[in-house]
Protein backbone atom coordinates (compact mmCIF):
# COMPACT_ATOMS: atom_id res chain seq x y z
CA UNK A 1 0.00 0.00 0.00
CA UNK A 2 2.76 2.42 0.93
CA UNK A 3 4.39 1.59 -2.39
CA UNK A 4 1.46 2.97 -4.38
CA UNK A 5 1.66 6.11 -2.30
CA UNK A 6 5.33 6.72 -3.10
CA UNK A 7 5.39 5.79 -6.78
CA UNK A 8 3.29 6.31 -9.83
CA UNK A 9 1.52 3.14 -10.97
CA UNK A 10 3.54 0.94 -13.32
CA UNK A 11 1.20 1.76 -16.25
CA UNK A 12 1.74 5.50 -15.81
CA UNK A 13 5.50 5.02 -15.39
CA UNK A 14 5.74 2.77 -18.45
CA UNK A 15 3.81 5.22 -20.57
CA UNK A 16 5.85 8.14 -19.21
CA UNK A 17 9.21 6.67 -20.24
CA UNK A 18 7.96 5.35 -23.57
CA UNK A 19 6.48 8.74 -24.38
CA UNK A 20 9.58 10.56 -23.13
CA UNK A 21 11.69 8.64 -25.63
CA UNK A 22 9.22 9.00 -28.51
CA UNK A 23 8.48 12.68 -27.83
CA UNK A 24 12.16 13.59 -27.77
CA UNK A 25 12.71 11.70 -31.01
CA UNK A 26 9.64 13.34 -32.52
CA UNK A 27 10.73 16.90 -31.77
CA UNK A 28 14.20 16.25 -33.20
CA UNK A 29 12.73 14.54 -36.28
CA UNK A 30 10.39 17.48 -36.83
CA UNK A 31 13.16 20.07 -36.48
CA UNK A 32 15.53 18.12 -38.74
CA UNK A 33 13.11 17.27 -41.53
CA UNK A 34 12.16 20.85 -42.35
CA UNK A 35 15.84 21.73 -42.75
CA UNK A 36 17.05 18.91 -44.98
CA UNK A 37 16.23 17.94 -48.54
CA UNK A 38 17.76 14.46 -48.42
CA UNK A 39 16.00 12.93 -45.43
CA UNK A 40 12.76 14.92 -45.60
CA UNK A 41 10.75 12.20 -47.34
CA UNK A 42 11.61 9.45 -44.88
CA UNK A 43 11.44 11.69 -41.81
CA UNK A 44 8.01 13.08 -42.59
CA UNK A 45 6.57 9.58 -42.93
CA UNK A 46 8.09 8.74 -39.56
CA UNK A 47 6.92 12.05 -38.06
CA UNK A 48 3.29 11.52 -39.07
CA UNK A 49 3.26 7.92 -37.81
CA UNK A 50 4.92 8.89 -34.51
CA UNK A 51 2.49 11.78 -34.10
CA UNK A 52 -0.49 9.46 -34.33
CA UNK A 53 1.18 6.96 -31.97
CA UNK A 54 1.91 9.72 -29.45
CA UNK A 55 -1.68 10.93 -29.68
CA UNK A 56 -2.90 7.42 -28.89
CA UNK A 57 -0.41 7.07 -26.04
CA UNK A 58 -1.30 10.39 -24.39
CA UNK A 59 -4.97 9.38 -24.40
CA UNK A 60 -4.08 6.07 -22.73
CA UNK A 61 -1.88 7.91 -20.28
CA UNK A 62 -4.54 10.43 -19.33
CA UNK A 63 -6.87 7.50 -18.74
CA UNK A 64 -4.29 5.65 -16.64
CA UNK A 65 -3.54 8.83 -14.67
CA UNK A 66 -7.22 9.36 -13.92
CA UNK A 67 -7.94 5.85 -12.67
CA UNK A 68 -4.77 5.46 -10.58
CA UNK A 69 -3.59 7.44 -7.56
CA UNK A 70 -0.71 9.85 -8.03
CA UNK A 71 1.82 9.86 -5.19
CA UNK A 72 1.82 13.02 -3.11
CA UNK A 73 4.61 15.58 -3.28
CA UNK A 74 6.74 15.78 -0.12
CA UNK A 75 5.58 18.14 2.60
CA UNK A 76 9.03 19.76 2.49
CA UNK A 77 8.10 21.43 -0.79
CA UNK A 78 6.79 24.98 -0.42
CA UNK A 79 3.25 25.61 -1.52
CA UNK A 80 4.19 27.66 -4.60
CA UNK A 81 6.45 24.88 -5.85
CA UNK A 82 3.69 22.33 -5.59
CA UNK A 83 1.42 24.68 -7.49
CA UNK A 84 4.12 25.16 -10.14
CA UNK A 85 4.64 21.39 -10.39
CA UNK A 86 0.95 20.73 -10.90
CA UNK A 87 0.66 23.59 -13.36
CA UNK A 88 3.64 22.34 -15.38
CA UNK A 89 2.27 18.79 -15.46
CA UNK A 90 -1.10 20.08 -16.58
CA UNK A 91 0.49 22.15 -19.34
CA UNK A 92 2.58 19.18 -20.49
CA UNK A 93 -0.51 16.99 -20.77
CA UNK A 94 -2.34 19.76 -22.61
CA UNK A 95 0.49 20.26 -25.12
CA UNK A 96 1.09 16.55 -25.62
CA UNK A 97 -2.57 16.33 -26.60
CA UNK A 98 -2.74 19.60 -28.57
CA UNK A 99 0.44 19.15 -30.64
CA UNK A 100 -0.45 15.93 -32.51
CA UNK A 101 -4.01 17.21 -32.96
CA UNK A 102 -2.58 20.43 -34.40
CA UNK A 103 -0.50 18.40 -36.86
CA UNK A 104 -3.50 16.32 -37.89
CA UNK A 105 -5.71 19.42 -38.27
CA UNK A 106 -2.97 21.13 -40.24
CA UNK A 107 -2.79 18.27 -42.77
CA UNK A 108 -6.58 18.28 -43.06
CA UNK A 109 -6.58 22.05 -43.66
CA UNK A 110 -3.87 21.61 -46.31
CA UNK A 111 -6.01 19.00 -48.07
CA UNK A 112 -3.21 16.47 -47.56
CA UNK A 113 -4.25 12.87 -47.02
CA UNK A 114 -2.91 11.22 -43.88
CA UNK A 115 -2.28 7.49 -43.90
CA UNK A 116 -1.09 5.21 -41.14
CA UNK A 117 0.38 1.89 -42.25
CA UNK A 118 -1.73 2.04 -45.38
CA UNK A 119 -4.91 3.05 -43.55
CA UNK A 120 -6.51 6.32 -44.60
CA UNK A 121 -6.96 8.48 -41.51
CA UNK A 122 -10.04 10.69 -41.93
CA UNK A 123 -9.69 14.45 -42.28
CA UNK A 124 -10.78 16.37 -39.19
CA UNK A 125 -11.79 19.50 -41.11
CA UNK A 126 -12.22 20.42 -44.75
CA UNK A 127 -9.36 22.04 -46.69
CA UNK A 128 -8.81 25.72 -45.86
CA UNK A 129 -5.49 27.32 -46.74
CA UNK A 130 -5.95 30.24 -44.33
CA UNK A 131 -6.42 27.83 -41.46
CA UNK A 132 -3.48 25.79 -42.72
CA UNK A 133 -1.21 28.83 -42.45
CA UNK A 134 -2.31 29.42 -38.85
CA UNK A 135 -2.01 25.77 -37.83
CA UNK A 136 1.38 25.39 -39.51
CA UNK A 137 2.70 28.36 -37.55
CA UNK A 138 1.10 27.04 -34.36
CA UNK A 139 2.59 23.57 -34.87
CA UNK A 140 6.11 25.03 -34.97
CA UNK A 141 5.43 27.29 -31.99
CA UNK A 142 3.92 24.50 -29.87
CA UNK A 143 6.89 22.26 -30.68
CA UNK A 144 9.35 24.74 -29.18
CA UNK A 145 7.04 25.49 -26.25
CA UNK A 146 6.64 21.79 -25.55
CA UNK A 147 10.39 21.29 -25.81
CA UNK A 148 11.04 24.17 -23.39
CA UNK A 149 8.52 22.74 -20.91
CA UNK A 150 10.09 19.28 -21.21
CA UNK A 151 13.49 20.79 -20.40
CA UNK A 152 12.00 22.59 -17.41
CA UNK A 153 10.41 19.32 -16.32
CA UNK A 154 13.70 17.41 -16.69
CA UNK A 155 15.57 20.16 -14.87
CA UNK A 156 13.11 20.16 -11.96
CA UNK A 157 13.19 16.36 -11.77
CA UNK A 158 16.99 16.36 -11.64
CA UNK A 159 17.08 19.06 -8.95
CA UNK A 160 14.74 16.89 -6.87
CA UNK A 161 16.73 13.74 -7.60
CA UNK A 162 20.29 14.97 -7.34
CA UNK A 163 20.18 18.01 -5.08
CA UNK A 164 17.18 17.89 -2.81
CA UNK A 165 16.97 14.10 -2.90
CA UNK A 166 13.45 14.26 -1.54
CA UNK A 167 11.97 11.24 -3.33
CA UNK A 168 10.14 13.24 -6.01
CA UNK A 169 12.17 11.82 -8.90
CA UNK A 170 11.86 8.32 -7.46
CA UNK A 171 8.09 8.47 -7.86
CA UNK A 172 8.68 7.98 -11.59
CA UNK A 173 11.79 5.77 -11.27
CA UNK A 174 10.86 3.42 -8.47
CA UNK A 175 14.60 3.16 -7.77
CA UNK A 176 16.97 4.15 -5.03
CA UNK A 177 18.37 7.67 -5.47
CA UNK A 178 21.83 6.27 -6.15
CA UNK A 179 20.53 4.40 -9.19
CA UNK A 180 19.16 7.54 -10.79
CA UNK A 181 21.60 9.15 -13.15
CA UNK B 1 15.69 13.47 5.63
CA UNK B 2 18.95 13.27 3.70
CA UNK B 3 22.62 13.92 4.21
CA UNK B 4 23.06 17.44 2.94
CA UNK B 5 25.47 18.17 0.10
CA UNK B 6 28.50 20.34 0.60
CA UNK B 7 28.06 23.75 -1.06
CA UNK B 8 30.71 22.71 -3.56
CA UNK B 9 28.92 19.47 -4.51
CA UNK B 10 25.65 21.33 -4.70
CA UNK B 11 27.05 23.90 -7.10
CA UNK B 12 28.63 21.14 -9.16
CA UNK B 13 25.33 19.33 -9.51
CA UNK B 14 23.48 22.50 -10.46
CA UNK B 15 26.15 23.12 -13.05
CA UNK B 16 25.82 19.57 -14.39
CA UNK B 17 22.05 19.88 -14.71
CA UNK B 18 22.41 23.23 -16.42
CA UNK B 19 24.99 21.84 -18.84
CA UNK B 20 22.74 18.91 -19.69
CA UNK B 21 19.73 21.13 -20.39
CA UNK B 22 21.81 23.66 -22.29
CA UNK B 23 23.44 21.08 -24.53
CA UNK B 24 20.05 19.46 -25.24
CA UNK B 25 18.67 22.82 -26.31
CA UNK B 26 21.74 23.42 -28.48
CA UNK B 27 21.30 19.99 -30.04
CA UNK B 28 17.79 20.97 -31.11
CA UNK B 29 19.07 24.20 -32.64
CA UNK B 30 21.67 22.13 -34.47
CA UNK B 31 18.96 19.74 -35.73
CA UNK B 32 16.85 22.68 -36.91
CA UNK B 33 19.84 23.74 -39.00
CA UNK B 34 19.97 20.31 -40.59
CA UNK B 35 23.04 19.32 -38.51
CA UNK B 36 25.06 21.85 -40.51
CA UNK B 37 24.64 19.87 -43.68
CA UNK B 38 26.82 20.97 -46.57
CA UNK B 39 23.73 20.55 -48.76
CA UNK B 40 21.44 23.45 -49.50
CA UNK B 41 18.35 23.46 -47.28
CA UNK B 42 14.80 23.66 -48.64
CA UNK B 43 14.78 27.29 -47.46
CA UNK B 44 17.97 28.13 -49.37
CA UNK B 45 16.66 26.53 -52.56
CA UNK B 46 13.37 28.42 -52.22
CA UNK B 47 15.30 31.65 -51.58
CA UNK B 48 17.27 31.07 -54.77
CA UNK B 49 14.06 30.76 -56.79
CA UNK B 50 13.00 34.10 -55.29
CA UNK B 51 16.31 35.69 -56.25
CA UNK B 52 16.13 34.40 -59.83
CA UNK B 53 12.78 35.92 -60.75
CA UNK B 54 12.47 38.66 -58.17
CA UNK B 55 10.19 38.12 -55.21
CA UNK B 56 6.68 37.43 -56.54
CA UNK B 57 4.47 37.25 -53.45
CA UNK B 58 1.55 34.87 -53.63
CA UNK B 59 2.76 33.06 -56.75
CA UNK B 60 4.30 29.63 -56.94
CA UNK B 61 8.07 29.78 -56.60
CA UNK B 62 8.55 27.85 -59.81
CA UNK B 63 6.26 27.23 -62.77
CA UNK B 64 4.62 30.40 -61.52
CA UNK B 65 2.45 31.13 -64.54
CA UNK B 66 -0.34 28.73 -65.30
CA UNK B 67 -3.98 27.85 -64.98
CA UNK B 68 -6.18 25.27 -63.29
CA UNK B 69 -7.97 22.45 -65.09
CA UNK B 70 -10.45 19.82 -63.99
CA UNK B 71 -11.53 16.52 -65.43
CA UNK B 72 -11.13 12.84 -64.70
CA UNK B 73 -8.98 9.77 -65.21
CA UNK B 74 -10.58 6.82 -66.94
CA UNK B 75 -8.61 3.69 -66.06
CA UNK B 76 -8.56 0.76 -68.45
CA UNK B 77 -7.48 -1.67 -65.76
CA UNK B 78 -4.22 -2.75 -67.41
CA UNK B 79 -1.97 -1.21 -64.78
CA UNK B 80 -3.78 -3.04 -61.99
CA UNK B 81 -1.64 -6.10 -62.83
CA UNK B 82 1.35 -4.17 -61.49
CA UNK B 83 -0.13 -2.03 -58.75
CA UNK B 84 -2.80 -2.29 -56.08
CA UNK B 85 -3.52 1.46 -56.41
CA UNK B 86 -7.31 1.76 -56.50
CA UNK B 87 -7.30 4.26 -59.36
CA UNK B 88 -5.77 1.69 -61.75
CA UNK B 89 -8.87 -0.51 -61.48
CA UNK B 90 -11.18 0.16 -64.44
CA UNK B 91 -13.27 3.21 -63.57
CA UNK B 92 -13.19 6.98 -63.18
CA UNK B 93 -11.24 9.14 -60.74
CA UNK B 94 -11.71 12.93 -60.58
CA UNK B 95 -8.65 15.05 -61.36
CA UNK B 96 -7.62 18.61 -60.47
CA UNK B 97 -4.72 19.75 -62.61
CA UNK B 98 -2.62 22.72 -63.52
CA UNK B 99 -0.88 23.68 -66.76
CA UNK B 100 2.12 25.97 -66.46
CA UNK B 101 5.26 27.23 -68.09
CA UNK B 102 8.60 26.73 -66.35
CA UNK B 103 10.43 29.42 -64.46
CA UNK B 104 9.61 31.69 -61.56
CA UNK B 105 8.31 34.70 -63.45
CA UNK B 106 4.50 34.87 -63.45
CA UNK B 107 4.62 37.63 -66.09
CA UNK B 108 6.76 35.70 -68.59
CA UNK B 109 5.49 35.42 -72.17
CA UNK B 110 4.26 31.90 -72.88
CA UNK B 111 6.66 31.40 -75.79
CA UNK B 112 9.69 32.58 -73.81
CA UNK B 113 10.06 29.40 -71.77
CA UNK B 114 10.90 26.05 -73.37
CA UNK B 115 9.68 23.92 -70.46
CA UNK B 116 5.98 23.38 -69.97
CA UNK B 117 4.31 21.36 -67.27
CA UNK B 118 1.15 19.59 -66.31
CA UNK B 119 0.51 18.71 -62.68
CA UNK B 120 -2.32 16.42 -61.64
CA UNK B 121 -4.03 15.47 -58.42
CA UNK B 122 -6.16 12.34 -58.61
CA UNK B 123 -8.74 12.22 -55.82
CA UNK B 124 -9.38 8.56 -55.08
CA UNK B 125 -12.73 7.46 -53.71
CA UNK B 126 -11.17 6.13 -50.48
CA UNK B 127 -9.67 9.51 -49.56
CA UNK B 128 -6.21 8.76 -50.92
CA UNK B 129 -4.57 11.05 -53.45
CA UNK B 130 -2.03 10.73 -56.20
CA UNK B 131 -0.18 13.90 -57.10
CA UNK B 132 2.27 14.16 -59.95
CA UNK B 133 4.02 17.15 -61.50
CA UNK B 134 5.20 16.44 -65.04
CA UNK B 135 7.35 18.38 -67.48
CA UNK B 136 7.59 18.55 -71.26
CA UNK B 137 11.25 17.55 -71.03
CA UNK B 138 11.73 13.79 -70.75
CA UNK B 139 14.93 14.03 -68.71
CA UNK B 140 15.93 16.42 -65.95
CA UNK B 141 19.14 18.44 -66.31
CA UNK B 142 20.70 17.22 -63.06
CA UNK B 143 20.56 14.15 -60.86
CA UNK B 144 21.10 15.56 -57.38
CA UNK B 145 19.41 18.31 -55.34
CA UNK B 146 22.76 20.00 -54.76
CA UNK B 147 23.49 20.20 -58.49
CA UNK B 148 20.02 21.61 -59.00
CA UNK B 149 20.77 24.31 -56.44
CA UNK B 150 24.02 25.11 -58.22
CA UNK B 151 22.16 25.30 -61.52
CA UNK B 152 19.70 27.76 -59.98
CA UNK B 153 22.58 29.84 -58.64
CA UNK B 154 24.28 29.83 -62.05
CA UNK B 155 21.00 30.96 -63.64
CA UNK B 156 20.55 33.95 -61.35
CA UNK B 157 20.19 37.07 -63.50
CA UNK B 158 23.08 39.49 -63.47
CA UNK B 159 21.69 42.77 -62.06
CA UNK B 160 23.44 44.69 -64.85
CA UNK B 161 21.96 42.82 -67.80
CA UNK B 162 18.86 41.30 -66.22
CA UNK B 163 19.95 38.00 -67.76
CA UNK B 164 21.98 35.06 -66.43
CA UNK B 165 25.72 35.44 -66.88
CA UNK B 166 26.56 33.21 -69.90
CA UNK B 167 30.05 32.49 -68.57
CA UNK B 168 28.68 31.32 -65.26
CA UNK B 169 26.11 29.10 -66.99
CA UNK B 170 28.79 27.67 -69.25
CA UNK B 171 30.94 26.88 -66.22
CA UNK B 172 28.03 25.09 -64.65
CA UNK B 173 27.22 23.01 -67.71
CA UNK B 174 30.89 22.23 -68.35
CA UNK B 175 31.29 20.93 -64.83
CA UNK B 176 28.02 18.94 -65.04
CA UNK B 177 28.24 16.54 -67.98
CA UNK B 178 25.07 14.80 -66.78
CA UNK B 179 23.15 17.77 -68.24
CA UNK B 180 24.04 16.63 -71.81
CA UNK B 181 20.78 14.79 -72.54
CA UNK B 182 18.70 17.71 -71.29
CA UNK B 183 20.72 20.21 -73.34
CA UNK B 184 20.31 18.05 -76.43
CA UNK B 185 16.55 18.13 -75.90
CA UNK B 186 16.64 21.89 -75.42
CA UNK B 187 18.54 22.37 -78.68
CA UNK B 188 16.50 19.94 -80.73
CA UNK B 189 12.89 20.56 -79.86
CA UNK B 190 10.43 22.81 -81.64
CA UNK B 191 7.71 24.08 -79.34
CA UNK B 192 4.20 22.90 -80.07
CA UNK B 193 1.27 25.25 -80.50
CA UNK B 194 -0.52 24.26 -77.32
CA UNK B 195 -0.41 22.77 -73.87
CA UNK B 196 -2.95 20.34 -75.33
CA UNK B 197 -0.60 18.76 -77.88
CA UNK B 198 2.37 18.57 -75.52
CA UNK B 199 3.80 15.29 -74.19
CA UNK B 200 4.45 15.40 -70.42
CA UNK B 201 6.93 13.23 -68.53
CA UNK B 202 6.96 12.28 -64.85
CA UNK B 203 10.80 12.67 -64.82
CA UNK B 204 11.54 10.58 -61.72
CA UNK B 205 11.17 6.85 -61.40
CA UNK B 206 8.55 5.36 -59.09
CA UNK B 207 7.75 1.85 -57.96
CA UNK B 208 4.47 0.04 -58.53
CA UNK B 209 3.66 -2.47 -55.80
CA UNK B 210 1.51 -5.49 -56.40
CA UNK B 211 -0.74 -7.38 -54.01
CA UNK B 212 1.96 -9.98 -53.29
CA UNK B 213 4.49 -7.21 -52.71
CA UNK B 214 6.14 -7.63 -56.12
CA UNK B 215 7.75 -4.37 -57.22
CA UNK B 216 8.10 -2.88 -60.69
CA UNK B 217 10.02 0.35 -61.31
CA UNK B 218 8.27 2.66 -63.75
CA UNK B 219 8.29 6.10 -65.25
CA UNK B 220 5.10 7.60 -66.54
CA UNK B 221 4.20 10.09 -69.20
CA UNK B 222 1.09 11.63 -70.71
CA UNK B 223 0.84 11.18 -74.48
CA UNK B 224 -1.47 13.76 -76.07
CA UNK B 225 -4.27 12.58 -78.36
CA UNK B 226 -4.35 16.10 -79.81
CA UNK B 227 -2.12 16.14 -82.92
CA UNK B 228 1.18 18.00 -82.83
CA UNK B 229 1.41 21.39 -84.55
CA UNK B 230 4.38 23.71 -84.23
CA UNK B 231 3.96 27.02 -82.43
CA UNK B 232 2.81 29.50 -85.10
CA UNK B 233 4.70 32.75 -85.58
CA UNK B 234 1.54 34.75 -84.89
CA UNK B 235 1.20 33.07 -81.46
CA UNK B 236 4.42 34.75 -80.37
CA UNK B 237 2.64 38.11 -80.42
CA UNK B 238 0.34 37.02 -77.61
CA UNK B 239 2.14 36.58 -74.26
CA UNK B 240 -0.78 34.46 -73.03
CA UNK B 241 -1.18 32.38 -76.14
CA UNK B 242 -1.15 29.05 -74.30
CA UNK B 243 -3.94 29.88 -71.89
CA UNK B 244 -6.05 31.48 -74.64
CA UNK B 245 -5.51 28.44 -76.83
CA UNK B 246 -6.43 26.06 -74.03
CA UNK B 247 -9.59 27.94 -73.11
CA UNK B 248 -10.68 27.94 -76.75
CA UNK B 249 -9.99 24.24 -77.18
CA UNK B 250 -11.93 23.36 -74.01
CA UNK B 251 -14.95 25.27 -75.33
CA UNK B 252 -14.94 22.82 -78.26
CA UNK B 253 -14.72 19.78 -76.01
CA UNK B 254 -12.53 17.83 -73.57
CA UNK B 255 -8.82 17.15 -74.15
CA UNK B 256 -7.26 13.71 -73.76
CA UNK B 257 -3.92 12.16 -72.91
CA UNK B 258 -2.96 8.51 -72.52
CA UNK B 259 -1.27 7.76 -69.23
CA UNK B 260 1.62 5.60 -70.37
CA UNK B 261 3.72 3.57 -67.91
CA UNK B 262 7.22 2.55 -69.02
CA UNK B 263 8.39 -0.62 -67.26
CA UNK B 264 12.04 -0.64 -66.22
CA UNK B 265 14.37 -3.59 -66.59
CA UNK B 266 16.55 -4.44 -63.62
CA UNK B 267 19.58 -2.63 -65.07
CA UNK B 268 17.72 0.66 -65.70
CA UNK B 269 18.71 3.42 -63.25
CA UNK B 270 15.88 4.59 -61.01
CA UNK B 271 17.96 7.10 -59.05
CA UNK B 272 19.01 9.29 -61.96
CA UNK B 273 16.49 11.56 -63.69
CA UNK B 274 19.09 12.70 -66.23
CA UNK B 275 19.16 9.30 -67.94
CA UNK B 276 16.42 8.13 -70.26
CA UNK B 277 15.71 4.41 -70.29
CA UNK B 278 16.23 2.51 -73.55
CA UNK B 279 13.43 3.18 -76.03
CA UNK B 280 12.49 -0.49 -76.36
CA UNK B 281 11.22 -0.81 -72.78
CA UNK B 282 7.68 -2.16 -72.64
CA UNK B 283 4.91 0.35 -72.09
CA UNK B 284 1.36 -0.08 -70.90
CA UNK B 285 -1.50 2.38 -71.09
CA UNK B 286 -3.04 2.76 -67.67
CA UNK B 287 -5.93 4.86 -68.92
CA UNK B 288 -7.00 8.20 -70.26
CA UNK B 289 -6.66 11.61 -68.59
CA UNK B 290 -9.60 13.71 -69.78
CA UNK B 291 -9.56 17.44 -69.03
CA UNK B 292 -12.84 19.29 -69.40
CA UNK B 293 -12.70 22.75 -67.81
CA UNK B 294 -10.16 25.42 -67.01
CA UNK B 295 -10.10 28.08 -64.31
CA UNK B 296 -7.74 30.99 -63.56
CA UNK B 297 -5.06 29.97 -61.06
CA UNK B 298 -6.01 32.79 -58.67
CA UNK B 299 -9.49 31.38 -58.10
CA UNK B 300 -9.43 27.81 -59.43
CA UNK B 301 -9.34 24.61 -57.39
CA UNK B 302 -5.63 24.02 -58.10
CA UNK B 303 -4.62 27.25 -56.36
CA UNK B 304 -3.73 25.84 -52.96
CA UNK B 305 -2.58 22.41 -54.11
CA UNK B 306 1.05 21.50 -53.57
CA UNK B 307 1.83 19.07 -56.39
CA UNK B 308 4.20 17.11 -54.17
CA UNK B 309 5.35 14.05 -56.16
CA UNK B 310 5.48 11.94 -52.99
CA UNK B 311 1.76 12.19 -52.26
CA UNK B 312 1.03 8.71 -53.54
CA UNK B 313 -1.72 6.14 -53.02
CA UNK B 314 -1.03 2.69 -51.66
CA UNK B 315 0.41 0.65 -54.55
CA UNK B 316 2.70 3.43 -55.84
CA UNK B 317 5.93 4.34 -54.03
CA UNK B 318 8.81 6.72 -54.59
CA UNK B 319 12.04 5.30 -56.00
CA UNK B 320 15.58 5.88 -54.74
CA UNK B 321 15.81 9.08 -56.82
CA UNK B 322 17.13 11.76 -54.41
CA UNK B 323 15.28 14.47 -56.31
CA UNK B 324 11.96 13.13 -55.00
CA UNK B 325 12.65 13.90 -51.35
CA UNK B 326 14.09 17.28 -52.33
CA UNK B 327 11.07 18.18 -54.45
CA UNK B 328 8.81 17.21 -51.57
CA UNK B 329 10.79 19.32 -49.09
CA UNK B 330 11.15 22.41 -51.27
CA UNK B 331 7.53 22.32 -52.45
CA UNK B 332 6.35 22.23 -48.82
CA UNK B 333 8.52 25.22 -47.92
CA UNK B 334 7.42 27.16 -50.99
CA UNK B 335 3.74 26.34 -50.41
CA UNK B 336 3.85 27.61 -46.84
CA UNK B 337 5.46 30.89 -47.92
CA UNK B 338 3.01 31.37 -50.77
CA UNK B 339 -0.05 30.69 -48.64
CA UNK B 340 1.23 32.98 -45.89
CA UNK B 341 1.52 35.75 -48.47
CA UNK B 342 -1.93 35.06 -49.85
CA UNK B 343 -3.47 35.22 -46.40
CA UNK B 344 -1.75 38.46 -45.52
CA UNK B 345 -1.99 41.66 -47.50
CA UNK B 346 1.03 41.07 -49.72
CA UNK B 347 -0.11 38.11 -51.79
CA UNK B 348 -1.01 38.57 -55.44
CA UNK B 349 -3.52 35.75 -55.56
CA UNK B 350 -5.72 36.84 -52.71
CA UNK B 351 -9.22 35.56 -52.76
CA UNK B 352 -12.09 37.81 -51.75
UniProtKB/TrEMBL annotation, chain A:
Domain of life: Bacteria
Transmembrane regions listed in the UniProt entry: 15-37, 49-67, 87-107, 141-163
Single Gene Ontology BP annotation: respiratory electron transport chain
GO molecular function: electron transfer activity; heme binding; metal ion binding
Chief subcellular location: membrane
A Pfam cross-reference name: Ni_hydr_CYTB
Membrane topology: Multi-pass membrane protein
Coiled coil: none
Ranges of residues in domain Cytochrome b561 bacterial/Ni-hydrogenase: 7-174
One GO cellular component, as annotated: plasma membrane
Cofactor: heme b
InterPro entries: Cyt_b561_bac/Ni-Hgenase, Cytochrome_b561_oxidase, Di-haem_cyt_TM
Cellular localisation: Cell membrane
Keyword terms, alphabetized: Cell membrane, Electron transport, Heme, Iron, Membrane, Metal-binding, Transmembrane, Transmembrane helix, Transport
Similarity remark: Belongs to the cytochrome b561 family.
Stated name of the protein: Cytochrome b561
Native source species: Azomonas agilis
Lineage: Bacteria, Pseudomonadati, Pseudomonadota, Gammaproteobacteria, Pseudomonadales
UniProtKB/TrEMBL annotation, chain B:
Coiled-coil spans in chain: none
EC number in record: 1.11.1.-
Origin organism lineage: Bacteria, Pseudomonadati, Pseudomonadota, Gammaproteobacteria, Pseudomonadales
A single Gene Ontology CC term: cytoplasm
Gene3D superfamilies the record matches: 1.20.1280.120, Catalase core domain
Physiological role: Has an organic peroxide-dependent peroxidase activity.
Keyword Lipoprotein: no
Residues that span the membrane, as ranges: none
Name used for this protein in its record: Catalase-related peroxidase
Entry's Gene Ontology BP terms: hydrogen peroxide catabolic process; response to hydrogen peroxide
PROSITE patterns hit by this protein: CATALASE_3 (PS51402)
UniProt-recorded Gene Ontology molecular function terms: catalase activity; heme binding; metal ion binding
Cofactor: heme
Keyword match Nucleotide-binding: no
Residues reported in the UniProt entry to bind heme: 331
Active site as annotated: 63
Swiss-Prot/TrEMBL keywords: Heme, Iron, Metal-binding, Oxidoreductase, Peroxidase
All residue ranges annotated as the Catalase core domain in the record: 23-352
Family note: Belongs to the catalase family.
InterPro entries on file: Catalase, Catalase_core, Catalase_sf, Catalase_SrpA-type_pred
Organism per entry: Azomonas agilis
Amino acid sequence: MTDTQQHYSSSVRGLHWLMAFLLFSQIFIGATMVARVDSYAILIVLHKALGLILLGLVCLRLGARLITTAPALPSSMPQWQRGAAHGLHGLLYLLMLAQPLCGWLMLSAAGQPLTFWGWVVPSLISADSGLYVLLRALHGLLAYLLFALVLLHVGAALVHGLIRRDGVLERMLKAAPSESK
Amino acid sequence: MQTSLTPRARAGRYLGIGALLGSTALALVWAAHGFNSSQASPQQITDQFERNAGFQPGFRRNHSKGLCVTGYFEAQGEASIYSTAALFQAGQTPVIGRFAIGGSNPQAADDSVPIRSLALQFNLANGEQWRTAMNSNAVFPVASPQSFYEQLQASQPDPKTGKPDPARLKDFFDSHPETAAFRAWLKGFTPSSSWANTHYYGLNAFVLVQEQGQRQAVRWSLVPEQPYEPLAAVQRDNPNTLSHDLEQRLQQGPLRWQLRLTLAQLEDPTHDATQAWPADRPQITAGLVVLEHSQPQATGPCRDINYDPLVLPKGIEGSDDPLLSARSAVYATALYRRLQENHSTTGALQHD
